[in-house]
Amino acid sequence: MALVAGIVGAIGCGAIWTRADRLAAPVLTRTAITTFTGRIEQIEIQAAKATVRLTLATEGAPALPPRVRVTVDVDKMPDGIVAGERVSLRARLVAPQGASVRGGFDFARVACSSALARPARRSGR
Fold first, then answer.
1. What is the pLDDT of residues 49-95, one digit of tens each?
2. Are the C-beta atoms of 67 and 115 separated by less than 8 Å?
3. Burial class of residue 57 (count of CB atoms within 10 Å of its CB; 0-12, 13-18, 19+)
4. Cβ distance 54 to 32 under 8 Å?
5. Distance between CA 16 and CA 97 in Å, rounded?
6. Residue 70's beta-bridge partner residues?
7. Looking at residue 43, what is its pLDDT?
8. Of 71, 76, 97, 86, residue with least CA distance to 38
9. Cα–Cα distance between 124 and 96 in angstroms, integer?
């Protein structure tokens, strides 16, 4: 009976491990300046900083996480941009930072679990 339980447990662990590997999203490990296309999921206006933060679902870029956040200065933001539109831009993407103190907020872990890259800055035009 114990042998059967051990075999069933091993099969279960193997199935979980295989599923986790299949569903794993790409994670940025270093800073990258890249051009990509994405669909706007969310627009957050940050009036105090005079910036707009866009949450984009990346398209056709297998090396990028499925979602990235890009910060754009208000004066460089094109008029009429709404959620659901496709945009193409060049941005400096930065790898998520881990916890700065033991037990502190770990942005890298949260970003990995939500398939989200650290906020980036739009560069160029």
1. 889 989 999 887 777 888 888 888 888 888 888 999 999 888 888 87
2. yes
3. middle
4. no
5. 27
6. 54, 120
7. 92
8. 86
9. 22
Q: Please list, in sequence order, all residues whose beta carbon lies within 8 angstroms of the beta carbon of residue 68, skipping any fewer than 6 positions away.
A: 38, 55, 56, 58, 91, 93, 116, 117, 120
If DSSP states are collapsed to H, E and C, what string results for the chain? Answer: CHHHHHHHHHHHHHHHHHHHHHHCCCCCCCCEEEEEEEEEEEEEEEHHHCEEEEEEEEECCCCCCCEEEEEEEHHHCCCCCCCCCEEEEEEEECCCCCCCCCCCCCHHHHHHHCCECCCEEEECC
d(CA 89, CA 81): 13
pTM: predicted TM-score of the whole model, two decimal places: 0.62
Q: Are strands 32-46 and 86-93 parallel, antiparallel or unpaired?
A: antiparallel
Query: What residue type is 66 in one-letter code?
Result: P
Rounded CA separation 42/26 (Å): 21
Are the CB atoms for 71 and 122 separated by under 8 Å? yes
